Amino acid sequence: MIEIQALLNGKSITLNSKGTELCKGCQKEVNLVELPIIGGPDKGKIQIFRYGCKCEEMKLAQEALEARERAKKQYALDMFNAKSLINEKLKAATLKNYETKNNESLQNALEWAVDYCKTFNTRENKKAILAGKSGLGKSHLSVGVTKYLMKHGTTCIFISVPKLFTRIKSTWEKESTVRELELLEALETVDLLVLDDIGIEGASQWQVTKLFEIIDSREGKHTIFTTNLATKKLIDELGKRNFERLFYEADEIFFQGESHRLKNRRR
User: Could you write out the DSSP letters of every residue in 127-152?
Assistant: First the structure.
């Protein structure tokens, strides 16, 4: 039996200890104490109170971390949305208006994209490469994926690799209000990063190194790549070791057929 001086009316209250237990939430040992309810309709009724539980503190700490993470992601989106990253032709792109043109490979690609969206989980590390000749809708499909996921609360950045390098170099200018490190941290933060047109021919060593710096920083997060290059050419551009490192356990979606742009031009 433990006695304490009550804060109300100066009365003495006896605490009847009922032992201890391990809290399933915070995994801390808590004291179980019988106390009378001081006020309200149940005044005087004996109830067991738990002292030493850290669940509420942990909940508040977790909420603070989540709020900070949301702020970081929003900052990343604001930083990249300051300049248009998507060309005019892609701004209207969605999964719904993606045309398969009775092409089996394009139909398979669309089915993959829909499944990717429906099963998207930020706790997983999932990479995918969309490969095929230009004009088959790889970028369209990727933009469609980001639009769908962003409607459901997922943070996404779609950017072509050439524009990415231009954006990075812009931070070197004296009048730039954004530092390169901030830009790279933004790319690291978002739930899904789409790097469009990877493996541009004639890439410099600096570009290849910077690209892998970004990709390595995203370990444990979703990344989608698109490329117009055949596998052999992509290996030549990135190097065999980098190629294997980049696409290890990545979903591979191949686009085959005639370019939509060439078809439209002939018409």
Answer: EEEEEE-TTSSHHHHHHHHHHHHHHT
Residues with Cβ within 8 Å of residue 72, at least 6 apart in sequence: 185, 189
Identify the pLDDT of residue 101: 81
Nearest to 195 by CA among 172, 167, 176: 167
Mean pLDDT of 76-85: 57
Contact (CB, 8 A) for 255 and 227: no
- pTM of the predicted model as reported, rounded to 2 decimal places: 0.70
pLDDT tens string 218-233? 888 899 999 998 888 8
Angle of the 180-189 helix axis to the 55-81 helix axis, nearest 10: 120
84-266: CATH number: 3.40.50.300
Question: What are the Cα distances from residue 122, in Å, to 127, 159, 164, 210, 218?
Answer: 12, 20, 23, 24, 12
Based on its alpha-carbon atoms, the radius of gyration of the chain, rounded to whole angstroms, reads: 28
Which residue type does 64 have? Answer: A
**pLDDT band, very low/low/confident/very high, at 5 (cuts 50, 70, 90):** very low
- 114 C-beta neighbours (distance < 10 Å), count: 16
Domain map (residue ranges) of the chain: 2-53, 84-266
Question: Which residues contact residue 154 at a Cβ distance below 8 angstroms, ignoring those fewer than 6 apart?
Answer: 120, 122, 191, 192
Cβ within 8 Å of residue 74, ≥6 positions away: 155
Confidence at residue 13, expressed as pLDDT on a 0 to 100 scale? 57
Q: 235, exposed or middle or buried, with CB in 10 Å at 0-12, 13-18, 19+?
A: middle
Q: Which two tokens stand for residue 86?
A: 């998507």
Using the Cα atoms of residue 218, residue 220, residue 222 and residue 225 in order, give the sign of their dihedral.
positive
Q: Which amino acid is at 139?
A: S
